[in-house]
Design brief:
- By secondary structure, this protein is of the alpha+beta class.
- The protein has a four-stranded antiparallel beta sheet, with no helix packed on it. A three-stranded antiparallel beta sheet has the order 3-4-5, with no helix packed on it.
- A hairpin with a 2-residue loop joins strand 3 and strand 4.
- The N terminus is likely disordered.
């Protein structure tokens, strides 16, 4: 009874999976992502937000510490490089399923124009890296005082 259901469902999902894979290969990550997209399967996950004063980037890297990550800025792009090492306890084990990413990774986040690269702050706490990239003074909104006539 269940064999009939499996035969019916498998080809449909295989074709869908194949189509998604082809789309990822064709339109996938070109080395950087803009503020509203992330490559499928990317690690670490990244949130980007903006205020009048700064752009804030949050990098979610559980189990990692600040020494495992490297940040650089070049041509209005924030590059996040790092390496997640395998657990020492995992040595000699056989896994039937392993979903935690292990190995080197690199992410690139395109930033808006006008970031002051000299005023960047980064803090790591509980596996979340918070990066504050201040906007240059000329990029910030200014309030203009209205004079009485």
């Amino acid at each position: 009874m269940f064999g009939d259901l499996a035969r019916f469902d498998v080809p449909v999902f295989n074709e869908l999976s194949r189509a998604l894979r082809l789309m990822d290969e064709t339109f996938g990550d070109f080395g950087s992502s803009d503020l509203r997209s992330a490559p499928r399967g990317a690690f670490p996950y990244v949130n980007v937000g903006e205020t009048d004063e700064a752009v804030n980037v949050y990098v979610f890297a559980p189990g990692m510490n600040k020494d495992d990550l490297e940040l650089t800025i070049e041509n209005n792009t924030l590059f996040i490089h790092g390496q997640r090492k395998a657990d020492d306890e995992a040595q000699g084990r056989t896994y039937y399923r392993r979903e935690r990413f292990v190995g080197e990774f690199s992410r690139a986040v395109r930033l808006p124009e006008g970031i002051d690269a000299d005023k960047v702050q980064a803090q790591m706490q509980d596996g979340v890296l918070s990066v504050r990239l201040e906007k240059a003074a000329e990029q910030r909104p200014r309030r203009i005082e209205i004079q009485a006539a």
